[in-house]
Automatic annotation (TrEMBL):
Signal peptide: none annotated. This is Protein arginine methyltransferase NDUFAF7. Residues 239-263 have a biased composition (Polar residues). Pfam families: Methyltransf_28.
Length: 459
């Protein structure tokens, strides 16, 4: 039977018990692969030459090495039914449609007709942008105002897929498509309103793992399993499993497993470093954590969120939606890998599996403070229900040519709002720029969480 699953479904053991009983596949504890992957060789050489690497370097090389990184290598199927994981826009068109409607409603709040630019961070297969463009092109208020689409995408392989998906939009109302390596390259022009989406983007960004000790924050690094020198300069972090500071019922973090199963193992640095010290001080929330706390902190996420806030506050203003799995606090054990729709050891086959870590939404909000206003986060379930997913699905079902299509539409939408799965674990944060926006009353964030039987049962 073909196995379809999202990246989030696998790790929430308790919350998703029903799903897991059908779909859960144990992480593979295979014997050490005979030959190392190209990224594995690069990592082992780097460790040999320079010593242990950070989790950030590990993640960066595994996902974004120019030719061998997971997202960069066209041989990796990545997203979709035939890929390693499936995402909300690939499940239902309604997802992108409702995101588009939220963005248009923020634009209408400005009360002034402006040119619009659309920006997406990490557009994957281009499906979400295609659905948003279709929605906006059907609304008289935005139809002729969209001039530019900016796609921030590091992978040339995925850019080619996005271009194929979106090229039909070229030329319509003079619409131009642009690709960028970084959000820094997206222009903010006078008189242009920016609509931005980032879906399952921040979870793919590199993070540093730091641990609070009596000497200050120290970084947990990655060394090779066979590194004989490591014990003399670094304490293996497996010596003392620190308490976890998450209310998420995550699976046992795979990087705390026996080191013999992969070529890598974590080690705690003997001294605080400038990086660990800076990151430990980067949020006032971290100062109240007890000794032994380990947290995943993404400096890249902070920088990009800050830039996002600046972008939607310049020109004629703007609005953004950030959707990802995560919590409103930091966690220390969410690093995981996905391969063939199953959870895998993040130290197994580097470069051949997707890597991900939960998003700390409070950290993003801290990065955005001062430049933009954040709303929520709300659960995806609450956001989509209050944006009218049921009404939209009913309309599509009425228009469906075949009854089976109607059933499929209903099932796909139900999956997005499932109170024990995607609907609960994914969060949606709204961001509105400083220009022309009120600070309160942004629907549906102002309405709060939808409380119903399904949601309550899962608490
Ligand atoms: N938003 C899509 C894809 C999610 S996968 C969806 O929901 O289906 C993550 C996406 O972010 C991929 O397109 C990946 O290539 C891109 N990506 C990851 N790290 C990136 C970075 N540092 N800069 C730009 N794009 C990045």
């Amino acid at each position: 039977m073909f196995l379809v699953r999202t990246r989030l479904h696998i790790h929430h053991r308790n919350a998703c018990r029903a799903l897991l009983s059908r779909h859960y596949v144990q992480p593979t504890h295979t014997a050490l692969a005979a030959s190392a992957t190209p990224v594995e060789k690069i990592l082992l050489d780097t460790i040999k030459a320079n010593g242990p690497v950070s989790f950030a370097t590990y993640m960066q090389l595994c996902l974004s090495h120019p030719t061998e990184g997971y997202y960069m290598n066209p041989a990796n199927p990545v997203i979709g039914a035939r890929g390693d994981f499936i995402t909300s826009p690939e499940i239902s068109q309604v997802f992108g449609e409702l995101l588009g409607i939220w963005l248009v409603s923020q634009y209408l709040n400005t009360g002034v007709e402006q040119n619009i630019q659309l920006v997406e961070l990490g557009p994957g297969r281009g499906t979400l942008m295609d659905d948003i463009l279709r929605t906006l092109s059907q609304l008289p208020h935005s139809r002729s105002s969209i001039k530019h689409v900016h796609l921030v995408e590091s992978s040339l392989a995925l850019r080619a897929i996005q271009e194929k998906k979106l090229e039909a939009w070229r030329g319509k109302s003079g619409l131009e498509l642009h690709w960028h390596d970084s959000i820094e390259d997206v222009p903010a022009a006078d008189g242009v309103y920016t609509m931005l989406v980032a879906h399952e983007f921040f979870d793919a960004l590199p993070f540093h793992l730091i641990e609070k000790t009596h000497q200050g924050w120290k970084e947990v690094l990655i060394t090779s399993s066979s590194d004989p020198a490591a014990k003399t300069i670094l304490r293996p972090s497996d010596d003392s499993t620190p308490p976890q500071f998450s209310n998420s019922p995550l699976t046992t973090p795979s990087h705390d497993r026996s080191p013999s199963q992969t070529r890598f193992r974590p080690v705690l640095a003997t001294e605080p470093s400038p990086v660990s010290t800076l990151l430990g001080a980067s949020s006032p929330r971290f100062s109240s954590l007890p000794i032994g706390a380990r947290i995943e902190v993404s400096a890249a996420s902070f920088r990009i969120a800050r830039k996002l806030g600046e972008l939607i506050s310049q020109g004629a203003g703007g609005s953004a939606l950030i959707i990802d799995y995560g919590t409103n606090h930091a966690v220390g054990n969410s690093f995981r890998a996905f391969k063939d729709h199953a959870l895998a050891d993040p130290f197994d086959s580097p470069g051949h599996a997707d890597l991900t870590a939960n998003v700390d939404f409070a950290y993003l909000a801290e990065a955005l403070a001062g430049t933009a206003t954040t709303h929520g986060p709300l659960s995806q379930r609450s956001f989509l229900l209050q944006m009218g997913i049921n009404t939209r699905v009913a309309a599509l079902q009425r228009a469906a040519a075949l009854p089976e299509r109607g059933v499929a539409l209903g099932k796909a939408a139900a999956r997005l709002v499932d109170g024990t799965g995607m609907g609960k674990e994914y969060r949606v944060m709204g961001v509105t720029g400083a220009v022309g926006e009120g600070t309160e009353g942004v629907w549906p964030f102002v309405a709060g969480e939808v409380q119903d039987a399904a949601t309550e049962k899962s608490h």
